Amino acid sequence: MSDWKTKKLGQLVDITSSKRIFYDEYVSNGVPFYRSKEVIERANNKRTVSTELFISDEKYIDIKDKFGAPVPGDMLLTSVGTLGIPYIVQDGEYFYFKDGNLTWFRNFTNELLNTYLRYWIISPIGKEILDSISIGSTQPALTIIGLKNIEIILPPLHEQKAIAGVLSTLDDKIDLLHRQNKTLEAMAEVLFRQWFLEPCKDGLPEGWEEGKLPDEFSFTMGQSPEGTSFNQDGIGIPMFQGNADFGFRFPSERVYTTEPTRFAEPFDTLVSVRAPVGEQNMALVKCCIGRGVAAFRYSKNSNYYTYTYFKIRSLITEIRQFNDEGTVFGSIGKSDFETLTIDIPPQSLICSFEETVRPINDKIIENCKQIGSLERLRDTLLSKLMSGEVRVEV
């Protein structure tokens, strides 16, 4: 590593903020803002833009002419609250960002590659340094001065490109699988709607019945173990408390317990029952469910997990109405689930749907497992490449 050098970040890239925008300058439609929310969502493969804050095209042009605006290759960094999420501006993006919650990196020198900096920031080395310079206890923040004074150890530019290339290849594969999953899930939802929702628009078809949720599904309301049994070292079994753990399809294994109380079985449908009520996931392995989660399975055949997942999803609007219940936070209880009215199709139709759509659902599940494996590989390499423990042949 004799050819690696140490420099302050402020010597390698301009670090600045944007012009402040005041509330009376907001308009109902125009150029969207990016805030921390949008950057975090895009970093997590959710390609959204703000639907809440806009400035006019004329205001955007005026600001851009006087102060500049992010262009492809620039990087935005979340700097208030949730810290250290980077996003590199892509071709064709047209937006401005709200002053204060994001920091703007532009005019990279030829000593620093923007993609390398992005990976350095999300590496354990970068995260530790950003934590060390953050200020504030209630709402942590990163300052421009603090970021400029960070010392970063740099490999030569050609090695930066090789490191970023290895990691981006993994990220591209992960992104491809995420996009494939969204397409597959949309296909499955369309098929469920065609089989089970559209036929009931004008009343129940012959052979269908009206019933209650327990007529089709058994469910378990979660119960939280003693806090002393919790750990993050993988000891015991995974324990999920609610929406904070939920992902695209499966929750993230973050907390484990050695004293599980109530369980969800593999491929059970999980629903958050405390605010926000109605978020949905699926159990990948046998796990403990805390009081913020309920687990559902089809009573007559637990292998009908595809039908269960999409049937519960079709009821989410009704379930989410309970966000307004409770004295402080929304919640839905066992008796509330028991009174939910549902349309019950013939068993033969459910069986045919499961046989037809389960391969689509199983592909989503397999993709999720592959995403997990690729993410673990990327994170392992990320740490070793940024420290120089593993070198990339150029």
Walk me through the topology.
Blueprint: E1 5-8, E2 14-16, E3 31-34, H1 36-43, E4 54-55, H2 57-67, E5 75-78, E6 86-88, E7 96-97, E8 102-106, H3 114-122, H4 124-133, H5 144-148, E9 151-154, H6 157-197, E10 209-212, E11 217-221, E12 230-231, E13 237-240, E14 255-257, E15 263-264, E16 269-272, E17 280-282, E18 287-289, E19 293-298, H7 305-314, H8 316-320, H9 334-338, E20 341-344, H10 347-387
Parallel strand pairs: 3-7, 13-18
Antiparallel strand pairs: 1-9, 2-8, 3-4, 5-6, 5-8, 10-20, 11-19, 12-14, 13-14, 15-18, 16-17, 16-19
Helix pairs in contact: 3-4, 6-7, 6-10
Description:
By secondary structure, the chain is of the alpha+beta class. The chain has three domains: 5-154, DNA methylase specificity domains (Adenine-n6-DNA-methyltransferase TaqI, Chain A, domain 2, Alpha-Beta Complex); 155-203 and 346-394, Bipartite methylase S protein (Helix Hairpins, Orthogonal Bundle), CATH 1.10.287; 209-344, DNA methylase specificity domains (Adenine-n6-DNA-methyltransferase TaqI, Chain A, domain 2, Alpha-Beta Complex), CATH 3.90.220.20. The chain has ten helices and 20 strands. A five-stranded mixed β-sheet has the order 12-14-13-18-15, with no helix packed on it. Strands 2-8-5-6 form a four-stranded antiparallel β-sheet, sandwiched between helices.
